[in-house]
Design goal:
heterodimer, A: about 525 residues, Threonyl-tRNA Synthetase, Chain A, domain 2, 3 domains, six-stranded mixed sheet, four-stranded antiparallel sheet, 13 helices, 19 strands, about 55% helix, B: about 300 residues, alpha+beta, 2 domains, 9 helices, 4 strands
């Protein structure tokens, strides 16, 4: 322990000044020069105090693998047709493709796979007469790679969307293998945010199968076609209705080749919001070719398996520009433009946890928390003075130091304050006086033995120290584990409690002892008010 | 010199009560074990944090009874609804095991049910907490791991600072507190959520502090002990010596917790209630569980 009283006081006051400097921005808005040279961060409020949305999203990797195998399947089929490999059957399984070919074309098939599909490996062959059954497996490394990339890409896409939506201080992090944690503090329209984030935003262009449209009513869906729902909105009433529409299965163009998407107003119905999109050069070429080949037919624009519009192609469209209409409201059009610009999620996401806290609830919690803290503090302060008289005042000074140090450290460490965190502060006040209680009771014991004031104070502090140290360490162990295993608000509680415990160790032993030593040194009292 | 004292110098034979308090403690622990089993069977009042489901906090503008609200929600298809009124504020906490699906969000469902069933009443959904069932399981697992690991770490620490017997006695006392609190919550059918787990660990820490203080004194007095037959007196003396500290600290802690209980609002009520009860149990256990255990053990060893 440092002997010099001066140095101890200097330390206590120095820490106090630093704490107060860090606490200032929470009370008054810093301006001008002050803002330039002093820390201006306020205490970070958690979602439960600020209001906002906490989402845990899970990437549907099973669905993603299906999509992936689907794409591989189509590419493989096209490649075989192009290379003139005749196949009697082509099947897709969970993570493999199996193809039935004539035995003599084996060489040609293996060449093709070796050249164009390096991520496939042969998984064995089976002869059936003249025919050969070949199985191709997706490389495991490739699968792991795809899953890994998917989460990263989803993270990036969601971050883009949120940035464009305009949320301050969002938290977007990966959690576990395929989960993404999103926290949006202070968000005003959680419904809309969820819609924006959770949407896969897979944009596709497909042809409407008009020749077979009549056959659908009898339940016979032709090979190569599919039924999707089409959303139309009545322009006068604003009510959206859905109908079924028959489309060719083949995807002509996807949103991957988009470079831009903007909200425009106008179009054939006057002043209606729509989204104009722009393709890159390859997309433009494909779009040009597609429209040229299908003049007079209807081209459906599909987002996440819902058809938004299916206009008739009147003429060949060059330049790579198109527009998506569908009777959108302004907000819908804006959000659609955002998701198209930010890109599609690699797989659909499922919301597995959604905590939404309205701003009024948060403010209410802060108000109640602060009120409880003030009352708790007053009760403890008054009790200490009642029970320990002037020494109680010393304990109370230590308690105030505690509070300032705690808030200062909290702000400086940029820790997040939550409602349980406030409870932690109050609890620290109650438990924090324990150190002083232990010391004071010891001093009383020493005084009862007839020791002088100086000897009693020194002895009391010395003997209580071991106990104080042990008890603080055990509390630190529990808070540390709470911090590791706890989530959100609980972490806040663990942080306040552990910072509180450490600071307490300092103020109880260092701070209050310095005051005692000073009084004893200066006034040399014969008795002690304790 | 004169001091303000809540206890004069006491000479209570705490160890003499040990048979009675052991019976009482056994009942508490058994209650806790039953509660623990019930949690595993899913028959306790667990929050959506652990079971998966949705919890909504709704504020009504108009007067409405819990019964009316329950009827409306059951009519609308939420059969397992659990309603808790926030007394005197027209606010309600609504809980159901249903969670969001791709087709519908429970919050929207509740909203539309209330709109159609209770046309005359206007309301606002202040906050919601939806947890998928898999997430709930993970949280539950983590909570149990957290409790077990922290208890193990504490035994190691105490065993190192004192000795093995003290370590085991402290751990049994801490387990006793955790189980007792669990049992009491189960009997009162109060909700067990993540905050409750936090309260359990906080109380474990608090009770341990208490136990450490008593043990520290026992160790100190044992050093002055002349023969082992004095052990029972030494333990009694030690408890009596630290009694005033034990009571004062419990009191100040209770004052602080009492303030949260009274002014902290609905979110913190159950949490501070658990802490409040826990302080009593923690104080009780360091005197009547941990200390007699040392005595019993020493007697056998000798």
């Amino acid at each position: 322990m440092i002997k010099s009283l001066k140095i101890r006081f200097i330390l206590v006051v120095l820490f106090l000044i630093i704490s107060v400097i860090y606490c200032m921005p929470n009370i008054i808005e810093l301006q001008g020069v002050w803002k330039k040279y002093f820390p201006s961060d306020k205490i970070h409020l958690g979602l439960d105090l600020k209001g906002g949305m906490h989402l845990l999203l899970e990437l549907d990797t099973v669905k993603m693998m299906q999509n992936m195998v689907d794409r591989k399947f189509n590419a493989f089929k096209d490649a075989m047709i192009r290379e003139g490999i005749r196949f009697m059957g082509l099947e897709k399984k969970e993570n493999s493709l199996s193809v039935l070919i004539r035995a003599e074309q084996k060489e040609k098939l293996y060449n093709l796979v070796g050249k164009e599909f390096p991520d496939l490996k042969s998984g064995g062959t089976r002869t059936e007469g003249d025919n050969l059954h070949v199985e191709f497996l997706l490389l495991e490394k490739e699968i792991a790679n795809i899953k890994d990339n998917a989460v990263r890409q989803a993270l990036e896409t969601i971050r883009n969307r949120i940035d464009q939506f305009g949320v301050t201080e969002p938290v977007i992090v990966q959690q576990g293998e395929n989960q993404i944690l999103v926290q949006l503090p202070g968000i005003k329209d959680p419904e809309r945010a969820l819609e924006l984030i959770g949407r896969t935003a897979q944009l596709e262009f497909k042809l409407v199968d008009e020749e077979n449209a009549s056959r659908v009513t009898v339940g016979a869906i032709p090979e190569g076609s599919e039924i999707l729902t089409m959303r139309t909105r009545n322009r006068e009433t604003g009510i959206a209705t859905t109908t079924s529409i028959l489309l060719k299965k083949q995807t002509l163009l996807t949103g991957e080749l988009l470079t831009d998407a903007r909200v425009r107003i106008g179009g054939e119905f006057g002043n209606e919001p729509y989204v104009s999109i722009e393709f890159d050069s390859e997309g433009a070429r494909i779009f040009d070719k597609t429209t040229a080949e299908n003049v007079g037919k209807r081209l459906a624009i599909i987002l996440d398996n819902t058809v938004y519009s299916a206009p008739v192609v009147r003429e060949r469209i060059s330049g790579g520009k198109a527009s998506i209409t569908g009777g959108f409201t302004m907000d819908e059009a804006k959000d659609l433009a955002i998701v198209l610009r930010a890109g599609a999620l690699p797989a659909p996401v499922k919301v597995v946890q959604n905590i939404t806290i309205g701003p009024t609830l948060g403010q209410d919690s802060i108000r109640k928390g602060i009120r409880a803290a003030i009352f708790g503090a007053i009760l403890v302060l008054v009790f200490m003075i009642f029970y320990y008289r002037y020494s109680g005042i010393v304990a109370d000074i230590a308690l105030f130091l505690n509070l300032f140090y705690l808030l200062g450290a909290f702000t400086a460490l940029k820790a997040t304050m939550t409602l349980p965190g406030i409870a932690g502060i109050i609890l620290t006040m109650g438990m924090g006086v324990d150190s002083n209680v232990l010391i004071f009771e010891r001093i009383r014991e020493e005084l009862r033995l007839g020791k002088t004031v100086r000897a009693a104070v020194d002895g009391g502090y010395e003997k209580a120290w071991v106990t104080i140290f042990d008890s603080h360490i055990t509390t630190l162990i529990t808070t540390f584990i709470l911090f590791i295993f706890g989530t959100g608000p609980i972490k806040g509680f663990a942080v306040t409690l552990s910072i509180g415990v450490i600071i307490n160790l300092f103020t109880a032993v260092f701070g209050s002892k310095a005051i005692f030593d000073w009084i004893i040194g200066k006034y040399k009292p014969r008795s002690l008010s304790i | 010199m004169k001091f303000v004292e809540i206890t004069k110098k006491t000479n209570i034979d705490f160890m003499g009560f040990r048979n009675k308090t052991f019976i009482f403690s056994t009942i508490l622990v058994l209650l806790g074990l039953v509660g623990f089993v019930m949690i595993f069977l899913g028959k306790a009042n667990e929050s959506v944090d652990f079971t998966g489901g949705t919890q909504l906090q709704i504020q009504f503008v108009d007067q409405i009874t819990t019964g009316e609200l329950r009827r409306a929600l059951i009519n609308g298809g939420i059969h397992d609804v659990h309603i808790q009124e926030v007394s005197g504020t027209r606010g309600f906490l609504i809980k159901t095991k249903q969670s969001d699906t791709e087709k519908e969000k429970i919050q929207d469902k509740v909203g539309s049910i209330l709109l159609s069933e209770l046309k005359a009443k206007s309301f606002q959904i202040l906050g919601s907490n939806m947890v998928g069932s898999t997430v709930g399981k993970t949280l539950k697992k983590n909570a149990i791991i957290a409790i077990v690991i922290s208890l193990i770490c504490i035994v190691i620490y105490i065993a190192w600072r004192f000795n093995f017997i003290f370590g085991v006695a402290a751990t049994i006392a801490t387990f006793h507190d955790v189980l007792a609190l669990l049992g009491i919550f189960w009997v009162l059918n109060m909700e067990m959520n993540i905050l409750f787990i936090t309260a359990l660990l906080t109380i474990a820490g608090y009770s341990l502090t208490d136990t450490v203080v008593v043990f520290d004194r026992i160790r100190e007095n044992m050093a002055k002990m002349k023969s082992k037959s004095e052990l029972i007196n030494v333990i009694n003396l030690s408890i009596n010596e630290v009694l005033s500290r034990t009571l004062i600290t419990s009191l100040t802690t209770l004052l602080a917790i009492g303030a949260i209980l009274a002014f902290g609002g609905i979110v913190l009520f159950d949490f501070s209630f658990a802490l409040f009860i826990g302080v009593f149990i923690g104080t009780y256990s360091s005197i009547f569980v941990a200390s007699p255990l040392i005595f019993l053990w020493r007697k056998k060893v000798r």
